[in-house]
Amino acid sequence: MNLVAAERIKLLSTPAPKVLAAAAVIVPVVFAALVAGAAEDPSTVTVGVSQAGFQLGIAPILALAMASVTTEYRYETIRATFLAAPGRGSVLAAKAAVAGLVSGAIGLVSAFGALGASALMAPEADLALDTGADWRNVAGLAAYYAVAAVIAVAVGTMVRHTAAALTLLLGYAMFAEALVPAVPGAGVEIHRWLPFNVGKQFLIGAPDPAMAPTGPPAPAPSTSVLGPWWALAYYAAVALALLGVAVVTTKRRDA
């Protein structure tokens, strides 16, 4: 618990993570308000549409979590951290836990803020959380962001350099995965098992059948063949596997 407390203080005591956290909340909420306000037919503003901006919030979430590791390597304070807590695996686990919890909290605020903004801008829209899918679409953002944060900590630990790690992970999460289905042959099948695509299966699942083709933009559905909760388990397992690789890598090289 002392390690977790120390990592919480280090993460939240500098301005940059606070700015990134604010961006991860404000951008999706503003996007939801703009989409709902521009809708000509309130019936097209669904719970799924209110959450369309979650993909805009993933970038600051990844940057926030990654910086919890790469900033220490940049300023070489990681050596003092490892001297104070020789168990390097425990240090990385604490960093991942703090980044995951903070990112999960940000996800909850962002998701319910976006839902509230949509209701404010389109008061006639049906935005009640009546089904399990609706609740996953909103409250599930906490889990989606939390797991993404663990992945970011793992990648940041392995790469160490902030700009390189952020470019690599953002490029993968926001562009590379979407391009895989275009690869001839097994591209479509491979895409079904890529982590962020599978994570979206838990969050948004299949397309909303009530969504009009000409209505407001909704998040693109996942192509995963897993059920929602199995998708979350797979997504989390990939994150933990990457964190395990990061721990092994860190133990084998100098700080």
From TrEMBL:
Keyword Transmembrane: yes
Bilayer-spanning residue ranges: 20-39, 54-75, 96-122, 142-159, 166-187, 229-249
Signal sequence, renumbered to the chain: none
Keywords: Membrane, Transmembrane, Transmembrane helix
Name this protein carries in UniProt: ABC transporter permease
Species this protein is from: Nonomuraea purpurea
